[in-house]
Amino acid sequence: MANIHVLRPGFYTTLQDTGRHGVAQYGVPQSGVMDSFSSGKSNLLLNNNLNAAVLEILMTGPILEFSSETYIAVCGAQFDILLNDQPISLAKRYRVQKGDVLKFGKLHKGLRAYLAVSGGFQSESVLGSRSQYPGITTAAKLEKGMSLAITDEVVTAKALSRVNFEDTQLWDPAIEVYPGPEFALLSTEEQQQLFERSFTLSSKSNRMAIPFEETLNNTLKGITTGPVLPGTVQLTPSGTLIALMRDCQVSGGYPRVLQLSTFGICQLAQKRPGEAISFKRKALDIGAISR
């Protein structure tokens, strides 16, 4: 099997697919790509399965050397990207040759980029997923000197007929949310504050959760520990809002006041600590659920 050699791992680069499903009863986090919109685009460009493993690249990117021919595509955050010291673009398919070197340089917009290869990365699969997570997979993130397995069969990527890669909404600071299970327990004034105020991402943000700097006047009591999932927004006793992300726990005892939409998770995943966002209430399409 062919491989890609990690010359530099970047700040926090991980292998991710769409995550582990059906194992929450064992306390196992779902994990998976933080921005499924961008990772999905990168896989679509190569005619990969949408669950094919990709590299999730955070803030500073890796330097990678290819041992064989393949196709690549990068989507998401806007980095300077060089293939053999020549700039390449986001959201385009490129063929690489044996010995080619891919470098990620300065980050200009967003926070996370996604590198797909033809056929997907062939790393170890644990509990039905290749997503790296401490204590579950052998490695929690990329390290210098690693070899990343890829298929040695060069798959000719067919031209896509019509795919809209417009991502303007991804950068919108208004994040899509639904009311959470305990939303109705908030006073009318507290409910209004959720949608009228801006909230700043904390420097403590990570793949598990994104806390916000501003606090609300919280009059709610704690709840009996209940299920949570990626996108659940909890309200702590101190009034801090915490948006749970892909590596979050499977249960919690703080009121669940909001739930990010799938696209809302993608939007928030591209915001940097210190950026301000607002919550935009999204209508629940009951008809779509029943279908």
UniProtKB/TrEMBL annotation:
Gene3D superfamilies: Cyclophilin-like (2.40.100.10)
Entry keywords, A to Z: ATP-binding, Hydrolase, Nucleotide-binding
SMART domains noted in UniProt: AHS2
Keyword Transport: no
Pfam family, one: CT_A_B
Native source species: Leeuwenhoekiella blandensis (strain CECT 7118 / CCUG 51940 / KCTC 22103 / MED217)
GO MF assignments: ATP binding; hydrolase activity
Source species taxonomy: Bacteria, Pseudomonadati, Bacteroidota, Flavobacteriia, Flavobacteriales
Record-annotated Carboxyltransferase domain positions: 25-289
Matching InterPro entries: CT_A_B, Cyclophilin-like_dom_sf, PxpC
Name this polypeptide is given: Carboxyltransferase domain-containing protein
